[in-house]
Amino acid sequence: MLRIVSVHPEEALTVHVLLTDGSERDIDLTPFMWGPVFRPLLADRTVFTRVFVDPISQTLAWPNGADIDADVLLGLEQPARPSHA
User: Fold this and answer.
1) Domains defined for the chain, CATH in brackets
2) SS3 sequence, the chain?
């Protein structure tokens, strides 16, 4: 199972990640940054740059509780969408 080892914020909403297989990728997070939990990250670059790898889940995470799963980032799963019910 491929997981994230480290992350570094780059320009705009892009991050550079190191994966458990030793590969590295630049990933544009724009398609994943929707919903209320991501609004502070979009509104303030300083908040976005506080991204870290959660040591337990190995997901990208932020101090406000926002996170993005590695499987979603790597295209192995589709992100959950809010229900319109």
Assistant:
1) 4-73 (3.30.2020.10)
2) CCCEEEEEECCCCEEEEEECCCCEEEEECHHHCCCHHHHHHHHCHHHHCCCEECCCCCCEECCCCCEECHHHHCCCCCCCCCCCC
Residue 62: CB atoms within 10 A of its CB come to 19
pTM of the model: 0.84
Residues of the chain scoring pLDDT < 70: 76-85
Which residues neighbour 74 within 8 Å (Cβ) at sequence distance 6 or greater? 2, 19, 25
